[in-house]
Predict the structure.
Amino acid sequence: MGALDGIQDEIQGVVEQVGNAVVGIGQRWGVGSGVVLSKDQILTNAHNVRGDEVSVTFPDGHTSSGRVLGHDVDGDIAVIGVDTGDLQAIEWATDGAPGIGAPVFALSNPGGRGLRVTLGFITGVERSFRGPRGRRITGSIEHDAPLLPGSSGGPVVGRDGRLLGLNTHRLGEGFYLAIPADESLRSRVDALARGETQRRVRLGIGVAPSHVARGLRRAVGLPDVDGLLVRLVEDDSPASRAGLAQGDLIVVAGGRPIEGADDLFEALGAAEGAIQLIIIRGTEERSVDVQLGAG
């Protein structure tokens, strides 16, 4: 038997072990993938779901309406409750995180359009990326198994078919990041399955990084200042109620100088109920007290 025959056998073995545990998420917009985690529970990315209900397409082609049991938007994971019938759940890996060079298999079912399985290798570990609302997600696995759009939320597994990570973030140029299937993820998933949706303190703003803020200020003749530029303010958010406006530059939060988004997230995480911001509006420095809310 040649090398290619051996690879084919490995792929077919993975399909037989876990292919029926991979489902499609969504239908018309933002399609993604998911994986049967346990009886009547599907794990996917939070960015694949909207609202409390979501369409789940099973390997045999039938579609059911599932209910979001819990989601963590900033961690980009969600657990969906839906009748999984007699589908066998995927098993978690128990050997720890794979190292660079380890072969992996990525599976997906983009929006229920059929199972895809690709082979790749771990190309990096302890990588990080930003979640849907800008918070940094750390400890990710980088691999080069090719994946179609709509593959987020599908599993990356080892040769034994056990879950190594949840495909989440496309890097471009053929690389993908997966949230590792470690004890931290298991604990968070268990909490979400119990309905303990993770909510973090937030202002309700969209921001641009310091280098963008400096460029925009220069363009209108204002001096360079490090900070985060407010690009949008959500209606009825803590920021809007405190009077923050588009174009404000946040330079201090909770007594901490703000040079990047991570500084702001750290300040919000340490705040208790309210936070004082120092902003620059035009050339005027102002202090703004914000009553915080989770979301």
